[in-house]
Design brief:
Number of strands: 0
Strand content: under 5%
Radius of gyration: 23 Å
Shape: globular
Low-confidence stretches: none
Order of helices and strands: HHHHHHHHHHHH
Structural class: mainly alpha
Distance between the termini: 36 Å
């Protein structure tokens, strides 16, 4: 494992005291990829980059972030060649279309499970994203690095065990990875610690949100906000990941 390449960002993420270190890493990687695709280095003009963006396209979330980024010409070039590929794929699917037979069962279930080659293609396109795909390749290595550091670096382990835990999205990935890669003995130690960590921090956020609500009572107008000012944003992050309060990430001029 390239320890420095992946352990340094992980240490930085844990030191950031964020609600989820993997959200912290994901945001940094995502912004770097937006810079790579659309920034002043003009990677969108390189054939190999456009081959990949044409192939994968961008998911709903990232295509909005590309628009927010602000490079109209760069987005235009990426869309132009991507459109040619999408139109060709669409035409191929249209040629192969054949009506589905709809029986009583499908009508009673509202068409559950019923699809044709065109609708299947649109769903495949919905799930395909250049930025998601690039992050996915690195994400596995960050999970490797996490467990490597957690088992070999007592300082890192202490920061995790006494930290703010993870968002539910990334915590689920951590649990999956642990089941696959940890020994039975390691699981007996790791999972109880993580369950306690998550429970404590979910309760912490519950209390922050509860106090935020209490602050809207006129009787508490002069009371200390404690840690509740940004409780809604942090609470949303904990449940779904990402940073709902972040402003759009824009091209640096």
């Amino acid at each position: 494992m390239a320890e420095k390449l992946y352990t340094i960002p992980l240490n930085d993420a844990v030191n950031a005291d964020d609600e989820c270190p993997f959200c912290f890493i994901e945001r940094n990687v995502e912004q770097s990829l937006l810079d790579y695709c659309l920034g002043s280095a003009a990677s969108y003009m390189e054939a190999d980059t456009r081959d990949q963006t044409d192939k994968f396209g961008f998911c709903r979330e990232h295509i909005r972030k590309m628009y927010d980024y602000g490079n109209t010409l760069g987005n235009g070039w990426i869309l132009k060649t991507h459109y040619r590929k999408v139109i060709k794929e669409m035409q191929d699917r249209f040629k192969k279309y054949a009506p589905k037979k709809v029986g009583l069962k499908e009508k009673l279930t509202g068409g559950a499970g019923l699809s044709n080659n065109v609708s299947e293609w649109t769903r495949e396109r919905d799930c395909s994203c250049y930025i998601c795909e690039r992050f996915k390749k690195d994400y596995q290595r960050y999970l490797d690095a996490f467990f490597y550091l957690y088992s070999t670096d007592s300082e890192f382990r202490g920061k995790v065990d006494n930290g703010k835990g993870f968002c539910l999205h990334h915590f689920g990935d951590l649990c999956d990875y642990g089941e696959l890669h940890l020994s039975e003995k390691e699981k007996k130690e790791f999972f109880p610690k993580m369950f306690d960590l998550m429970e404590r921090n979910m309760e912490r956020l519950y209390e922050d949100i509860s106090w935020l609500i209490e602050k809207f009572d006129y009787r508490n107008k002069d009371a200390d906000w404690k840690n509740s000012r940004d409780a809604v944003a942090r609470g949303m992050q904990k449940l779904r990941g990402s940073y709902p309060a972040d402003p759009p990430y824009k091209m640096q001029k």
